[in-house]
Amino acid sequence: MEGTNFxxxxxxxxxxxxxxxxAERVFRVDRSIYTDPEVFDAEIKxxxxxxxxxxxxxxxxxxxxxxxxxEVGRQPVVIWRQPDGEIKGFINACSHxxxxxxxxxxxxxxxxxxxxxxxxxxxxxxxxxxxxxxxGYDGSFDRAHYNLKEVPxxxxxxxxxxxxxxxxxxxxxxxxxxxxxxxxxxxxxSPDGLEVVPGAPSYMIxxxxxMQAENGxxxxxxxxxxxxxxxxxxxxxxxDNRQGMAQTEAGRIVGNVPTASYDLGNGHMAIWATxxxxxxxxxxxxxxxxxxxxxxxxxxxxxxxGRNLMLFPNVLLMDNPSTQIxxxxxxxxxxxxxxxxxxxxxxxxKAARSARLRKFEDFYLTAGMATSDDISALEDTYAGSxxxxxxxxxxxxxxxxxxxxxxxxxxxxxxxxxTSNPNWDHEILFHGFYRQWAKLIGNSxxxx
Amino acid sequence: MARNDTLHREVEDLIYRxxxxxxRKKWEEWLDLFTEDAVYWVPAWRSEEETTDxxxxxxxxxxxxxxxxxxxxxxxxxSRDSYASVPLDRTVHxxxxxxxxxxxxxxxxxxxxxxxxxxxxxxGMTRGSLYDxxxxxxxxxxxIAKKKIVFIDDRLEGPIDVYHL
Lengths: 448, 165
Known about the structure:
The complex is a heterodimer of chains A (about 450) and B (about 160). Chain A has about 450 residues and is α+β, with helices and mostly antiparallel strands. In chain A, strands 13, 14, 15, 16, 17, 18, 19, 20, 22 and 23 form a 10-stranded antiparallel beta sheet that branches. In chain A, strands 6-5-4-7 form a 4-stranded antiparallel beta sheet, with no helix packed on it. In chain A, strands 1-2-21 form a 3-stranded antiparallel beta sheet. Chain A has 2 domains: about 55-155, Rieske Iron-sulfur Protein; about 180-445, Alpha-Beta Complex (Naphthalene 1,2-dioxygenase Alpha Subunit, Chain A, domain 1), CATH 3.90.380.10. The relative contact order of chain A is 0.16. Chain A has helices at about 10-15, 30-35, 35-50, 135, 170-175, 180-185, 210-215, 220-225, 225-240, 250-255, 285-295, 295-305, 350-365, 370-385, 410-415, 430-440, and strands at about 20, 25-30, 55, 65-70, 75-80, 85-90, 105-110, 110-115, 120, 125-130, 155, 160-165, 195, 200-205, 260-265, 270-275, 305-310, 315-320, 325-330, 335-345, 390-395, 405, 420. In chain A, a hairpin with a 2-residue loop joins strand 11 (about 155) and strand 12 (about 160-165). Chain A contains 16 helices and 23 strands. Chain B has 3 helices and 7 strands. Chain B has a 6-stranded mixed beta sheet with strand order 2-1-6-5-4-3. In chain B, a hairpin with a 2-residue loop joins strand 3 (about 90-105) and strand 4. Chain B is globular and about 45 Å long. Classes of the chains: A alpha+beta (about 450), B alpha+beta (about 160). The interface between A and B is large, with 44 and 38 residues.
């Protein structure tokens, strides 16, 4: 792991922010973990620029020359599909004077010419042409020296592309571990896989990225923050008497359905809640095909469980009323940029696609009727975390109900969580998130 | 074709009244300006330069197929149970550049620009939108049959609800 110039005494101070004493039934997080600028700098370096993070979905770079611009931590990176189909990643800055190369977030180009001084690069990263090369440099000049810097690691699992700016990391599939079974649940909904639907709104949260990470797998807030979504949908249904997929199910929000939560290892977390009306979900039309081609336990997981997966550190995969990839980009301790993509099984019916989009818009956006409430809540928790007289967030709810390893439902699907909890409003899954956090921050000074 | 001053004035009155009712938070009167089958559409940006343009296959910020969708929004605001809507942001809409298009039987098209100043917990924000209206005469009075709002911000500082647009 990199990080040699990160001073050990500072790492020790940061590590004290996770008070992890299971023998004494203590697990708590110092609220300054969300607000402290030194924590933030260490996270950028050792978590976002020091390990695997989600980059994009392969359908966003479907064809040769397709590119997709991202930031890895603070560093601009472009994911670029090669003529032979391979996906590569490069630092998205000109080797000459650092101007960002790609004019758009997403586009297609076999070569790119820097708009500042006119240097040209091929999609394989080769510096192909330098304006005035013959008049400005001597015979020892080597254009290859200016090839684009390739990111050390890039790999995909079933269409989800990840990069690491540190070379010395575990293979991607080892890092993903138990989450692979959860990713499969989304990808296996269509024999042709998933696609990202056009339209990708971004929004800013006036809060810390870890608050969004927690919120995505916090079942406990649902019955308060989203109660109004349930009552609004109930009023809509009595007024409109909607049929089929046009209905919105809110049974999970009201509660009283089986739920669970998991620490999936390596900082990954997940929750599910049983759908009370699976027949209103867009995937319902595919049930016979799914039953004919997949194990029964897996089909049950796809059809009957609304699922949120938090892949450490920067992406949430959600399959509830609609399906989404939610990517987090930390800007500052109190600024997090979130971009949401509606992802859908390729080849679903027009009616299912349209229903999926309307459900997405109803709930998930900052202009929606639920996510906007989440964002306001997270911004309040950021403001509250500045109160140093009350420094601790305890995460102990559900401790006595915790099962080591898989519960019955996990065994049915076949994944190995670190711990299972029989309720999505338990908080034990967060232990895994903060242990991974401490591992990466702690390794920065060579010991834990 | 000579400008139809009476129609122009009628269209402007409706558009200004809509903005005024939003700012004064007279939600029921605001809803009454829309036809039962009114479409309310706020596309998303699909790239830096283009918005989405097909609600059946692409994502939007808001796409409501009838006035019921707006009634949902008002229900949530009035419930006082929405974290994002308590306390409620203050807004001032300034609508201008009203251009009245072709009148075709009972419908007339119009466009306008709107600057909305919002004040809330995060302080003040000023943002802009392009409005495309289709208005239809119902029992003698013009009502909004379709409103498309291109909200020019992309990286959204939320929340965004009908009164912010």
